Each structure stands twice: as C-alpha cells, then as structure tokens.
TrEMBL record:
Protein name: inorganic diphosphatase
SMART domains: DHHA2
Organism: Vibrio gelatinilyticus
Assigned GO CC terms: cytoplasm
EC number: 3.6.1.1
Metal-binding as UniProt keyword: yes
Endoplasmic reticulum keyword on record: no
Length: 301
C-alpha cells in the first residue's frame, strides 16, 4: 500500500492532489490511499461536497510506509517521521526542497500554478480515465491555487487544464463556479487568530534557522480589522514555543492584490524599514510562492 500524503496545514491543492494522485496510482494497478496531515479548510470542504468525495483519513505518522508526497518537497512540511518511510514519488509545483531519498524515485516538479495541473497531464499521458469527481477536484484545486487565474503563478497549462476539466465535469458557467469557490476561500467568520495563522502556514529552513510564513486570502482586509494584535501575539507565541527566527502571515486581499504583512521574531527588525505608518503593505502581491517568500528571502538573508 502506498500512502499519498499532502503537506501539513493542508490547502485545497494538497487534499485534492492526494485524492487524485492516489487514483492515478490505482490506474497503474497499484494499491494507494490518500491521507491528510491536518483538518481541511472551508474551501476544501466546499470542493469535496461539490465533487461528492469524502475527505482522506488523518495520518500524522508514516514510519515504515511507502509514500508519495504531493504539493511539497520540504521536510518541515512532511510527517515528522518521514525519514522512517520510503519515498517512492513526488508531484509538486514549488521550488525543490530538502527531501532526500535512499533509492531512485518518480518525481514530477513543474513550474505551474498547481499540483493538480501536473496530475491532469499525467492522466492524459497515461490515458487514464478522468471521472467527473476527479475533474471537479482538479479544476477546483487549480482555480484555488491560481485565485481564479489571477495569480502570477498561473500558466497557460493551468488555464488549458481547467478548460478541458470543466467540459468533463459538465461545468457550463465557469465564472459562477469560480465565484462560489472564492466565496468559500475567503470565509473566515468565527475563526480565531491562531486558526487564521494555521489556516495556510508553511515552514521553511532558512540560513540554519526555521521560519514560518502563513497566508490568509480575503475578500477585503476589513475582515481582519480588530484582529491584528491577536495575530501578532500568536506569531510571538510560535516564535517562542518553536524557537523560530521569524514568523509571518500574509493578509491578502484577492480582489486588489494588496497584502499586509504581519511579522514577529528575531529577524523582524530587518523589515521595519519597509513600514509606512506602522504597517508593511505589499502591493500587487497575491502569491506567497512567487512573490511573498522570494522577497522575504532577499530581505532576511
């Protein structure tokens, strides 16, 4: 049995990618099962309900198992005992991380907007059947990761995949489909500051230390009015408890591509020079992968 596991604090691509990759492996005649490392968010709940698919089971240990990694190659985002598992495959669309393997593996890492774009192309290459539920999962993940094609991470391969998948899924009004998805994506009602930070938090090793950068996608920055102090306090707590050099969360208005960066930690002073009126605003910034994190690396070095 191969366990297909997405990253910690799973987003829609991580969950959908695990479900889809497991089906790809099954089409090869292999036994595979998708698993998740955390609770699914409201957007992913919306996607699974639309596709009529159950969420993967929760697993935080993969010791002694054979695994495929989906949507990451950083050890910090893998199960804590990943070094006790055998990694057979990787499908990802981020920079190459620090995962090491003992044996050769199958690896598909493309510079596209979403892992599910790669999986869609693998299904086509292998002439495996794409069912309607799989089509809904893949197109939803692509639209989520590319913020309805608005993100700078979006490529023509992502757009082409969605067009073909929409036909399979029977989606005639793509704009209405995207609107419903983005409403679910930006729904943060009732979430605490800690839950917001945790919502899409990624850990990175950098200059011999550990840092975390989260992102909360919003319909308007007004949604987090009154929560800034609580968000800052949560970042301070994480730095103390996890011995982080830096912790940040990107508060991103997906309608204006404006991001407010909330940050704390030993290295925080390196960014103070960019503040205006006590706030660090990042214009035309939608993507953590292609914009936020690369900029932070240059500033924190």
């Amino acid at each position: 049995m191969i366990l297909v596991v997405g990253h910690k604090n799973p987003d829609s691509d991580s969950i959908c990618g695990a479900l889809v990759a497991a089906e790809l492996l099954k089409s090869r005649g292999l036994e595979a099962k998708p698993v998740r490392q955390g609770e699914i968010n409201r957007e992913t709940q919306h996607i699974l309900a639309t596709a009529g698919v159950d969420q993967p089971e929760f697993r935080d240990s993969v010791a002694g198992e054979k695994v495929w990694l989906v949507d990451y190659t950083d050890l910090a985002q893998a199960p804590d005992d990943i070094n006790e598992a055998e990694i057979l495959g990787i499908v990802d669309h981020h920079r190459l991380g620090d995962v090491m393997t003992v044996n050769p593996l199958e690896a598909w890492i493309w510079p596209v907007g979403c892992t599910c774009t790669i999986l869609f192309n693998l299904f086509k290459m292998e002439q495996a059947e794409i069912t309607k539920p799989l089509a809904v999962l893949m197109m939803s993940a692509i639209l989520s990761d590319t913020v309805g094609f608005a993100s700078p991470t979006c490529t023509q391969k992502d757009k082409d995949a969605v067009q073909e998948l929409a036909a399979i899924a029977g989606i005639e009004d793509l704009d209405a489909f995207i609107k419903a998805l983005l409403i679910a994506k930006t729904n943060i009602e009732g979430l605490t500051a800690a839950e917001l930070v945790e919502k899409d938090l990624k850990a990175y090793p950098f200059n011999g230390r550990d840092v975390v950068v989260g992102q909360v996608e919003l319909a308007t920055l007004d949604q987090v009015d009154g929560m800034i102090e609580a968000l800052e306090a949560d970042l301070v707590r994480r730095c103390t408890e996890d011995k982080l050099a830096f912790a940040a969360v990107m508060l991103t208005d997906i309608t204006t591509a404006q991001t407010r960066l909330i940050y704390k930690g030993e290295w925080a002073e390196k960014l103070v020079k960019h503040e205006q009126d006590g706030q660090l605003m990042m214009e035309n910034t939608l993507s953590r992968k292609k914009q936020g994190w690369p900029w932070l690396q240059n500033e924190l070095v």
